Amino acid sequence: MVLLDLGKKISNAVNGALNNSNDDFVASVDNMLKAISTALLQNDVNIKLVSSLRSSIRNKLINGSSDNASLPQQQRKNLIQKTVFDELCNLIDCKSSTVQEFKPRKRTSNVIMFVGLQGAGKTTTCTKLAVYYASKGFKVGLVCADTFRAGAFDQLKQNAIKANIPFYGSYSEPSPVKVAMEGVAKFKKEKFEIIIVDTSGRHQQEESLFEEMIEISNAVKPNQTLMVLDASIGQVAEQQAKAFKESSDFGSIILTKMDGHAKGGGAISAVAASQTPISFIGTGEHIHDFEKFSPQSFIKKMLGLGDIDSLKDMMESVKHDKVAQEVQENMRQGKLTLLDFRKQMEMVSRMGSMAKMTQAIPGLSDMMGGNSEQLMQSTNQMFKTLFYIMDSMTKKELNSDGSIFFKEPSRMARVARGSGTSVGEVEGLIQQFHQMGSMMNSNAQRKLHQEDLMAAN
Ligand code: GDP
């Protein structure tokens, strides 16, 4: 991710100043500020914001107190680190408002309406948000009120089916207002707690788009309106956010395509400068490439400092998962199948993969030589290979404990051919699964033995 490179450059600049043993405090702070400013400008952050960040840090470190230069080395280090961190957070923090949070199991329906230009990532993000809330234990439904773009309903439908989220839409009804109203009414009647309405976009900001947005909004009375904005447009994000804000009073923004775009940092700071809160960011095309946004968490992760809050969020996301509970029950009973193994791997990849977790655990990324990006790529590839292999297995094979492959080795060759892998890779996966299975079995047997002993006593 390009922003991790930016983080690395900033960390290097700070570390350079911290490790500078020569006593010219002012010169080392100025060198650090120069390197930080260059890195931010290269990442499309607005020049005014960069120069204001530069003078705030300089003021706090140099002009604020003449004693800073004579502080003991460790205190001086802490001060520099804290000041840079705080000011980077200030740069992307929109202090004027906070994002509304919903509480699960309230038995009330909350309607969330999406707005934004075509191609910004609205439909994809609707499903991401639906999955986010479903993983927190909410009953979530999706409504496709985009009757403008051909294929929009099919896209939402496919995403929703894949993510196991109930959906509503129409192939024949031309009025987006009517579809939105019907969908929301249906889900409200069925006591859905979060109802997400996808609306249509246009290629540019047009009168007709704003009129339609207002009509739908008046009809479904959303509790929250979210604007989806493509981060790859960089600083222009500020203008676009303002134009939408004037016609639809949205609560917050979701910035998409934050992966791999140098302009992402520019978009975040520009949006923050327009006093609009950012609620989430999209970091890829996959359903789980989605993160709650908080300035502190974002900066911590970017600088490789880890972020316990997002780790908690990841753990929370599997707590309510029915599939996770089923797999755990099978594990407890020592009846693990290859299908359970697949589900387990899905869960891990849904939590954002081990490498994403590495970024969230303070210090771990550093321990791995700051190479979490490389690790992320190799774990993602490993997961993909595992899924390709398991997707080429028959139902009978998936519902087995895997020994069928050793009894009939031709099955391995068939799976390898179907998944574009080697027989060795297929065998490796089954062996891995067997090892896990025998561990589970001995645990389960130990548990049963303990239960027998307790019953006998
Ligand atoms: P809509 O017209 O606003 O509904 O946009 P879509 O949801 O159809 O998305 C447009 C394109 O952007 C699709 O190819 C998505 O896969 C892609 N997209 C959406 N969000 C992200 C993201 O966070 N990162 C990346 N790389 N692509 C995204």
Automatic annotation (TrEMBL):
It comes from the Eukaryota. One of its GO terms (biological process) is SRP-dependent cotranslational protein targeting to membrane, translocation. GO terms for cellular component: cytosol; signal recognition particle, endoplasmic reticulum targeting. Its main location: cytoplasm. Its EC number is 3.6.5.4. Belongs to the GTP-binding SRP family. SRP54 subfamily. This is signal-recognition-particle GTPase. One of its GO terms (molecular function) is GTPase activity. It catalyses: GTP + H2O = GDP + phosphate + H(+). Residues 277-290 form the SRP54-type proteins GTP-binding domain. The lineage of its organism: Eukaryota, Fungi, Dikarya, Ascomycota, Saccharomycotina. Keywords: Cytoplasm, GTP-binding, Hydrolase, Nucleotide-binding, Ribonucleoprotein, RNA-binding, Signal recognition particle. It is found in: Cytoplasm. The chain holds residues 1 to 457 of 539 of the full protein. It comes from Hanseniaspora osmophila.
